[in-house]
From TrEMBL:
It is found in: Cell membrane; Membrane. GO terms for molecular function: ABC-type sulfate transporter activity. Keywords: Membrane, Sulfate transport, Transmembrane, Transmembrane helix, Transport. This is ABC transporter permease. GO terms for cellular component: plasma membrane. Its main location: membrane. PANTHER family: SULFATE TRANSPORT SYSTEM PERMEASE PROTEIN, SULFATE TRANSPORT SYSTEM PERMEASE PROTEIN CYST. The keyword Transmembrane helix applies. Pfam families: BPD_transp_1. Belongs to the binding-protein-dependent transport system permease family. The chain crosses the membrane at residues 7-31, 51-75, 87-108, 120-144, 184-212, 232-251.
Length: 260
């Protein structure tokens, strides 16, 4: 028999889940199914869908590649200015995306940092590369924070035992630490991909809201809403919900199969 506390907590979970479901589900009933299908099949929406998925997967992969060593260093090593590094890495999570977008625009524009990139024919501002850059800087702090907490929960004693048996530091990381951290790595990957898919303001400032060039789904929603194309705007929102649901569903299913 369930206790009162158990029933209360489960009820709260169901209540908030129902409210969230109604909130997201309302998007699907505002316009007719025919309008949704016609909007999805339009060239503009297919382009935005393909661009969003491609850039998000690239950005999320790069984020995880750099977040793993960063979080491990913060968790395991002592070095000068470590506290300051942690604070700076956490700051973007407290800032509106628009601040990150303006900062990136200023940094990679006509500045000392932007010029060297252009010398090597790497153009970031108002290009699709800018989308990946914006998604990276928005999602990176979240990935580092999750992985940092994960590594902190792993008892260093397992690593000490591995080192005492003659395994190198890298072998210990690969065979002991990473397997023990797979839950956190998986969670970090899910959150990172979700943040990349939903990035809007930073993408708008760095890559620009150019029609059929840097038009991700969130940008398509903004542009069509500005022009009064309500059907297209709502369809873009619906696609964002569907993509997020599919991505998280398959990742959860993979985690279940792998007993993560």
């Amino acid at each position: 028999m369930r206790t009162k506390l158990e029933i209360t907590f489960i009820s709260i979970s169901f209540l908030l889940t129902a409210l969230l479901f109604i909130l997201l589900g309302s998007l699907f009933v505002i316009i007719s199914p025919n309008d949704i299908i016609n909007s999805i099949l339009s060239y503009e929406m297919l382009y935005a869908l393909q661009l969003t998925v491609t850039t998000s997967l690239i950005a999320a992969t790069i984020v995880m590649i750099f977040a793993l060593p960063t979080a491990y260093a913060l968790s395991r090593y002592s070095f000068p200015l470590k506290t300051l590094v942690k604070i700076i890495l956490d700051i973007p999570m407290a800032l509106p995306e628009i601040v990150i977008g303006i900062a990136l625009l200023m940094l990679f524009g006509n500045t000392l940092l932007g010029e060297p990139f252009r010398m090597f024919n790497v153009y970031i501002i108002f290009t699709t590369t800018g989308i990946v850059v914006a998604q990276f800087f928005v999602a990176f702090p979240y990935a580092v924070r999750i992985l940092y907490s994960t590594f902190n929960y792993i008892n260093p004693r397992y690593e000490f035992v591995s080192r005492s048996l003659g395994y190198s530091e890298f072998e210990t990381l690969r065979n002991i630490t990473i397997p023990l951290a797979k839950n956190g790595i998986f969670a970090g990957g899910v959150v990172t991909l979700a943040r990349c898919i939903g990035t809007f303001a930073a993408v708008l400032f760095v890559a620009g809201g150019t029609y059929l060039k840097t038009e991700t789904l969130s940008i398509a929603l903004y542009l069509n809403l500005s022009f009064g194309n309500i059907n297209m705007a709502i369809t873009a929102g619906i696609l964002l919900v569907i993509i997020s649901f599919i991505a998280i569903f398959f990742l959860e299913r993979y985690a279940k199969e792998q007993y993560i």
